[in-house]
Specification:
- With 64 residues, the protein is of the alpha+beta class.
- It has one domain.
- The chain is 23% helix and 33% strand.
- The chain has a 3-stranded antiparallel sheet with strand order 1-2-3, covered by helices on one side.
- A hairpin with a 2-residue loop joins strand 1 and strand 2.
- The longest helix is centred in the last third of the chain and has 15 residues.
């Protein structure tokens, strides 16, 4: 199943695409379609949740 979610970061909104194998695309701020529907949080797979968590942790530890 393909999934999509957006995350706000200090460098702008990023988009994350996952499937059953893992992350297959990371959209940078200038490449995110803000009209695209995200996978609802209660339907996100463990793979997507982990990717989003890792991005939050990465940016929380950066001094930008």
């Amino acid at each position: 199943m393909n999934e999509f979610a957006k995350i706000e970061t200090p460098i702008g909104t990023l988009g994350v695409r996952t499937n059953s194998k893992g992350v297959y695309r990371l959209h940078l701020a200038n490449d995110v379609d803000h009209r695209e529907t995200e996978t609802p949080a209660n339907e996100q797979s463990p793979i997507l949740k982990k990717a989003l968590k890792e991005l939050v942790e990465y940016f929380d530890h950066r001094n930008l």
